[in-house]
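Please produce the structure of this protein holding adenosine-5'-triphosphate.
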Amino acid sequence: MTDLAVDVLGLMKSYGETAAVDGIDLQVQRGECFALLGPNGAGKTTAIEILEGYRARDAGEALVLGHDPGRPTRTWRSRIGIVLQTATDNAELSVSEVVSHFAHYYPNPRTPESVIEAVGLSEKRKTRTRNLSGGQRRRLDVALGIIGRPELLFLDEPTTGFDPEARRDFWDLIRQLRTDGTTILLTTHYLEEAEQLADRVAVIAGGRIVAEGTPSSLGGREDADAVVSWWTPDGTQTRRTAEPTRLVSELAAEYGGEIPELTVRRPSLEDVYLSLVGRPAGTASDADAVGEL
Ligand code: ATP
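Below is the modeled complex.
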């Protein structure tokens, strides 16, 4: 048995003239949490839907849990969990009824109660889904994605609409699933989410992978210079250096203690991401102090 949960080579999919997925190679190890990042229309959902067995590819090779997703079987489907971008619609059923209903589709489901609790909907278990808030509906989607105890869980923008506390609860849940051995393939527009959860990330733009690596090393991030800034009577001073500790020590000696308004900054994942996908002109920020990566 291969160690790869997802093994993709030269994946292609066009809609008319639009090459939505334009030759993607992707390998996700079993047990790994992998995040796909990219701007709107980059091709993430198309790629994910091909891997979920819901969209036919035009070309390329793909294996998901050792099986061709272009020929989905019921047994194979029961081994994967899916949280789509569009919310589930079971308006008249209660949370508990929907989750119990979906549990019947799987050979070895988790208990509905445990899943409802895990996504933080215990207090809403008797509420009809049409009366849930947007974020609560999204949690229900996550519950349905994990009820079947999937080996591989696809999460397409799972925390859109979550408040900050719910997002943190969700991250804990994903970490727990990963600890339990679930492989996770996630798309997100929240860079912090990728940083918190992913072992590796890939950035997709124009249907192609433009960078891949760990969140801390993507785009040469770990080797980038630090930017040190501090207050002086003549205004804020900013200096870029490969040796921030030395600079801060010198400044501390100069000031005889606290350095006013000191910050030491390395490029964030967001800085790197924006430089990879091409930031639109006229959106300069202090991140630009870090320069090209
Ligand atoms: P988002 O972050 O907005 O969800 P995405 O990276 O998931 O975007 P896709 O939904 O895969 O992007 O879309 C990739 C490209 O394919 C876009 O240009 C989109 O307009 C096009 N596309 C997607 N689905 C279809 C379809 N069913 N018919 C025609 N074009 C499509």
